Backbone:
DNA sequence: CACATGATCGCCT
DNA sequence: GGCGATCATGTGG
């Protein structure tokens, strides 16, 4: 993990978590079953602090990746390399990787340390006034928030610059589908592990 | 609307 | 050496 990323978030994503009545979930939130965390993260906020202000969006689409038994997961078969190492951390850490040589993907690690499962953040919608569909896709979400591999391994719980905030109120209506872009994953390609807000215009694909 | 393609490079075999 | 947990743009119907 590198302490200081120079990447800056889109200034149009500035918001005030306290004004929105958001809370920071404890470590136990992230250590639960990965599917439960993937569902609970729909409606939560992902945010980055930059120059004393929070910038972020409300998560509207996630995917669960279930570790050693999941052919679509980077940790499939217990694979453990420098890149994937953050997936083996305790729930509540961040795992970021580069895909297609140009886009980053951000994941929230789940489960106790040693169980390499995670939730991919596929899309979010910005605060009131932000451009539509700015974060409608995992690569776009990372670009808008300035999240890169330099942030991989960060702890989302505590006093760091990237955190999750949860709403107290009603939960969104959740849709479920197969995961996107994992056709190579044999039996795992058909698992219903994508979760999205059925009422959001900012999910990555039409469903 | 439904594909099809190119960009671009780190990672793993 | 092959190939992605993607995206923007292009074509054709």
Residues:
């Amino acid at each position: 993990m590198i302490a200081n990323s120079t990447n800056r978030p889109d200034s149009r994503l500035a918001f005030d978590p306290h004004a929105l009545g958001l809370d920071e979930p404890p470590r136990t939130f992230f250590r639960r079953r990965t599917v439960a965390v993937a569902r609970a993260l729909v409606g939560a906020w992902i945010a980055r602090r930059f120059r004393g202000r929070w910038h972020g969006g409300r998560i509207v689409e996630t995917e669960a990746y279930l570790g050693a038994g999941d052919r679509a997961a980077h940790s499939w078969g217990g694979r453990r390399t420098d890149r994937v190492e953050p997936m083996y951390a305790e729930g509540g850490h961040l795992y970021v990787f580069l895909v297609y040589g140009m886009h980053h993907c951000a994941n929230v690690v789940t489960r106790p340390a040693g169980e390499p499962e995670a939730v991919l953040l596929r899309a979010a919608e910005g605060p009131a006034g932000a451009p539509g569909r700015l974060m409608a896709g995992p690569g776009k979400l990372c670009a808008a928030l300035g999240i890169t591999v330099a942030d991989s391994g960060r702890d989302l719980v505590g006093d760091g610059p990237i955190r999750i905030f949860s709403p107290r109120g009603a939960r969104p209506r959740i849709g479920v589908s197969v995961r996107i872009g994992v056709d190579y994953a044999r039996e795992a390609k058909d698992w219903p592990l994508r979760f999205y807000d059925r009422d959001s215009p900012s999910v990555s694909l039409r469903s």
Remarks:
- Chain A has three helices and nine strands.
- Residues 63, 65, 72-74, 97, 99-103, 105, 107, 120, 122, 137-140, 179-182, 184-185, 204 of chain A lie near DNA strand C (CB under 10 Å from a C1').
- Residues 1-5 of chain A have pLDDT under 50 and may be disordered.
- Helices of chain A lie at 27-31, 34-41, 138-145.
